[in-house]
Input
Amino acid sequence: MNAASQADAATSVDASDQLRAQQWGFLARVLSGAPDREVLDALGGLTGDGTALGNAYDVLAQTARTTSEQEVRREYFELFVGVGRGELLPYASFYLTGFLNERPLADLRRDLSAMGIARAEDRHEPEDHIASLAEVMAGLAEGTFDAGALGCGTAGEAGFFARHLEPWVTQFFDDLAIAPSARFYRPVAEIGRIFTDIEMRAFELARDGRRPAMGVAAG
Output
């Protein structure tokens, strides 16, 4: 995504939001395309912290160490591209309506426009692809994007998440976890499921000034 007009990213972002941005950025990276050898090697060096999310990263690290670049490229193709179509269609419109390029995409485009975000010229996927939405959430967490003016019930990133991800993201990661071709992407699905559940609960608890533990893996 490119920001036509961005919030001031120089404002301080607390450590928890930096970690959230990293989590969303990780999901955006591995769901937008197959990781190359450099990324696989970096993932293979991660260690968990004993939480459910950390344990999922441990499994991912082990899987990354035993997966070749060619294998993960083929897996990504089977899952998300395919001949005709992949095993999964990772778009909000499809999950919410059963069809591509429907009302959820139009609603998303309206909100992205209000936030000053435009699709990059080299991007060909509709904006409601899971990777693009994760990228937006990363930008919201780190303060690059500002959703404060959105008219989606609850303003800000909580409102953006509630409108464009919460209704379908859990089902997507559940489907990814059991997709026939998923091997490397099975622990990715577990990470996505756990992390987005944490986000849901965190937004619910935000009014009380509390946030559940992230359990972020460290390299």
